[in-house]
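debug: dumping io for the single-chain case to check the tokenizer round-trip. Nothing else runs in this session.
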Amino acid sequence: MSIDPDMKASIALTRFGLGAKPGELAAARADPTGYLKAQIRPAGADQPQGDLKSGAAHFNEVRDYQLMRRQDKADGLDPVKHAQKTIRESAQPEFLSRAQLACQTDAGFRERWTLFWCNHFTVAAKNLPTAVEVGPFEREAIRPHVFGRFEDLLAASTMHPGMLLYLDQVQSVGPHSLFATTRGFGYGGGGKLSGLNENLAREILELHTLGVGSGYTQADVTEFARALTGWSVQGENRGAGRFASAGEPGEFTFREALHEPGARHIFGKTYDEDGVAQAGAVLHDVAGSPATAQHLATKIARHFVADDPPPALVARLKSTYLDTDGRLDRVAETLIDSPEAWAPEQRKFKTPYEFLVSSYRALNLAPDDFTRFGPVLTSLGQQPFNAPSPKGWAEDAQAWAAPDAIVKRMGWSEAYAAATAPVMSEPMQIAQNALGAQLTPPVSLAVSRAESRPEALAILLMSPEFQRR
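debug: decoded output
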């Protein structure tokens, strides 16, 4: 299928990327596929900039706050009222810097590819400890590995304190572990140690690797959860007393005293007792499974191309994954080289985050205040760093294109257009820079006939061509 170079450049910037900034269509036109492939690099994704704290630093802030709160209560004093608010607000610069990167980057495909994996390995702000870990989780576990081997990305995400806290792995104790047989279940402390917790094991198999319907059983989940016991965060479960492990607070640790001893039988295979390496061996095997290749290929094709992904594209991505031992750079190249990914039809509806980012990019702007970006995103249904479940944010148009959601987008578009009117260039030039060959005659006519610049921009932003990619 032959595609006009102008149309191919538009697709490269809007479907593979996060929306075109002024001048980007011209930069991509000569070689759109080469333009995208040049953004793939062994070093991984770009990192948000700013005075951002490590996950360990955030963890210790929360830990200190919790200690202060317990001591205040023990002394009959009021809790430290402002500490929790301050800690929660410390996550705002993380999200703002992430959004600024998306709005300003010249490597839109690299950032979109990264955001796909951030959503695949979702960590969300379900409580105070996880609220401040989401940003560091993305920076420390996801971004460095997005063009490496999937197995390394899987291991990094599983071992990061953000994931271990989010899925309650720090609470999990082997039923026959040294700790359980010595102290018994229900023993309190800095965290709650109450028995075997299967959350992490289940989500790894169901969401991160094999996928639903791939053939694993409840027994496999339970056995995997037993293999994972002991994977924890240093500084959690301080009540473990003499069973506590060594290490820096807020970093991954293996608590051998909480680990369920013995061999594990998973997927018909025996995994001998080997401490922390036992669960690591399971991760290695599931990363290389054809079921994982199928699951990931389907999700990638669905994210980039269509809610109902083309079977030929899925098969091609799966084949590359298996042939290269899960090298994500090669999978990304296969996606770029696949003709199905370049179909002119815009079959993906932008999420609220994608819509806001592409709107800023169209005017070559970026948000400079979380309070003027985060609350808007929340009102549109995508609260910053707070996906509704471990499944992450929905990919399908049905989740985002309800009538009330469209009305809210319209209200924001009008307000954004009015606020940016003083710095706005000619609306027709903005439309051509943002959509290129995807700008249709009806939208072009409507923009040109608008009574004011703000009205013209609002029309552009709410057009089907801009709302889709």
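debug: round-trip ok. The longest helix spans residues 55-74.
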